Amino acid sequence: MNDAPADLLTVDQALAVLDEAPVRPRVMRVKLQDAEGFRLAAPVVADRDYPPFDKSLMDGYAVRSVDLQAAPTELNVVGEIAAGQSASVSLQPGQAMAIMTGAPMPDGADSVVPVEDSDSAGPNRVRLLATAQAGRFIARRGSDCAAGSVLLEKGTKLEAAQLAVAASIGAAEVDVFARPCVAVLSTGDELVPIDQTPGPAQIRNSNNIMLVALLRRLGCDVTDLGSVNDDPKLIRQSIEKGLQSDILFVSGGMSMGQYDFVPKILIDLGVDLKITKLRIKPGKPFIFGVKGQGARGEGQVYSPLAPCPSPLAPAFVFGLPGNPVSSFVCTLRLCSRLIARMSGWANLDRWISAKLSAPLETNGPREFYQPAVFDGSIVQPLKWKGSADIYTLAMANALIVRPENAPARPAGAEVKILEIPS
Amino acid sequence: MNDAPADLLTVDQALAVLDEAPVRPRVMRVKLQDAEGFRLAAPVVADRDYPPFDKSLMDGYAVRSVDLQAAPTELNVVGEIAAGQSASVSLQPGQAMAIMTGAPMPDGADSVVPVEDSDSAGPNRVRLLATAQAGRFIARRGSDCAAGSVLLEKGTKLEAAQLAVAASIGAAEVDVFARPCVAVLSTGDELVPIDQTPGPAQIRNSNNIMLVALLRRLGCDVTDLGSVNDDPKLIRQSIEKGLQSDILFVSGGMSMGQYDFVPKILIDLGVDLKITKLRIKPGKPFIFGVKGQGARGEGQVYSPLAPCPSPLAPAFVFGLPGNPVSSFVCTLRLCSRLIARMSGWANLDRWISAKLSAPLETNGPREFYQPAVFDGSIVQPLKWKGSADIYTLAMANALIVRPENAPARPAGAEVKILEIPS
């Protein structure tokens, strides 16, 4: 291991290191239909007033409110305006026009009477059963948003509603932050692929499929490099391949044992290890390194159809513990920060306050992330058997965060939880 | 409109109707690598004990605890066991074996001393600086889970941790519920595609891109049928095409105006309208219909690579209001229930209790879903301008649910919110 001064950082210190990493997100232009799930690299601005005209909010009759100070009142129907059409004439005293929801108000009209409040009174004649107030059932021009106003800020995630906003003002293409390209590698003689039967001292490689899914959920384009045996030459080859990506995730081979080659190989390959150990539970062995200077991807033209961009310095490396729960927690709590910065936004974290269903004991000297089930109000801590207990993690939808040396908490106390994305 | 007795249902009544719809989810077998985001159609069961042997949890020395009742103690090192290997001999009194994290304990050993608590004491000799207790730093065979235990229940969503569990026991293929195949269609003369400049009385079709994104987020395979003008023949053609899917979503053309053809055409095509109006705000015009009898997809062999299965009765239809906020709320609150049932699980809803940042007025006679921002503890109601105000919805990450005729609530009161998926 190297003797980095950053030995045994707290989680907050580690996050500060990640916030200093020389990240510059790539920007790409995509069709709006392909933009789902990306974050805006530039604001979306209204190109004109919306609605662009005074618009009826009801199916009914466009009227002059002065004509309808008493009810019932009969008016002459002088036309009809469907959505997508405009009236060619102005409304005169004593007149009404049939109007559809979404259609532009005719000149002269200042109110709408819903069709439910009307009766026919013969050809081209309507009996209106309600009085009218000026402005009622009308959306004024520009009342949704005025020309030039920022409708979606830079950094906004484009989901259903945001796509509708961008579509409504004709942003048929948008600038978004590209997904980070990441690679996942596991090391260990004990690992066999998931479709093979392990020998008596072997286990299936569950870390890769887990990390691939979690990193996709966090917004990455993921390459699965599989697993390699504890052979320095093979590990080095795979790590060199992984360093072509924006971020390489290596799990296993990270602690003090004599077969743990990864830190040595990283140093050998010119990776500057910024974090080597962490006071987090589960997940003590944890490495973060940077290879090369400058801003990766700076000035690159990026196409969503092209493969991951050719390597420009720097690349980042996370070394994760071999056991899956630790890998999961470290990725969700720490690596997500760098991913967020590379994706052009501040943070993927989502903290929620929740009431404990059961008491919690005093916590030890490491920040602790305890698997739990959150029902929208109450959080139930799950009994788990340590950092190899992926089975309990799989029943959780949240992690209770226990600060270092946190005191015991009674049932009913409020705690901070981190949701597990799904 | 038809005169269905189900006129003006409450939201709960509408949900009850959806819970009665004749749904039978399709099941398909997929490789675990392709199973991300799907829900299990059958439980995942442990094929053997995990761990399958007593396993070291530390890098260090496997010892007999009786040899280490005092510290320091020197022992003869008679071998080493890497992860993936097994010891060929038993540990005798006075002996230790070097052992790696994850490696099987040798016979005779009952404890591990971490490498940090050791010094070399010459060739094949170690000085151990700590005493040992039986069972310490060991995971017992079967302590994670015993052979035959259910690790993932039917209906579990396969995300990172669940995939790791399935991988760990060699479930290289799993039975999952297929995604519902849905089609999205908008109607209206006023609509133009998002890359065209609308005329003075036109608007861009933002409903389709919104519904496509939302329905994908809710777990559907979505076909975008675009928009059609208010022409009964064209609408009928598109609806017939959409009824090839499991669920057709039609937005617009739903209310009482004379250009609202959709309900008539649906009845004409043999669709049984189970819901025609709803007491929900926003979103009053709302249709749910069923075409045909029997369970759609029953007995079908389904391949994830094949297109949507050929039409078997019944197909379902949702008619949504033309304005996007109403469409969004109805889809998230109501249509999601049918999607959930077709995906083989109970409910997509996710309620959270949150404290109001500001008072709320008395609610009217319709259940009301108010766009809001939830920060993990406090929920801030957003001022919005009615059901056409997609701009405010795009700033929200949650909807505050106001029951029918709910009384005013002060700041600080707890309310139920529905998260907007993202």
Describe this structure in words.
Two copies of one chain form a homodimer. With 422 residues, chain A is an alpha/beta fold. Chain A is 17% helix and 29% strand. Chain A has helices at residues 11-20, 160-168, 207-217, 232-242, 262-268, 324-342, 390-393, and strands spanning 27-31, 44-45, 55-56, 60-63, 73-81, 95-99, 111-114, 118-120, 125-128, 138-139, 150-152, 173-177, 181-187, 191-192, 203-204, 221-228, 247-251, 271-277, 280-281, 285-291, 315-320, 351-356, 367-374, 378-381, 398-402, 414-419. In chain A, the strands form seven sheets. In chain A, strands 7-4-6-5-9-8 form a six-stranded mixed β-sheet, with no helix packed on it. The first copy, chain A, has a six-stranded mixed β-sheet with strand order 16-13-17-21-20-18, with helices on both faces. In chain A, helix 1 (11-20) runs parallel beside helix 6 and helix 3 packs parallel to helix 6 (324-342). The longest helix of chain A has 19 residues, at 324-342. Chain A is elongated, with a radius of gyration of 30 Å. The two termini of chain A are 36 Å apart. Residues 1-6 and 295-307 of chain A have low confidence and may be disordered.
What is the subunit arrangement here? homodimer
State Rg of chain A: 30 Å
Tell me the number of strands of chain A. 26
Give the biggest sheet of chain A. 6 strands, mixed
Q: How would you describe the shape of chain A?
A: elongated
Distance linking N and C termini of chain A? 36 Å
Uncertain segments of chain A of ≥5 residues (pLDDT<50)? 1-6, 295-307
Mean pLDDT across every amino acid position of chain A: 88
Q: Count up the helices of chain A.
A: 7
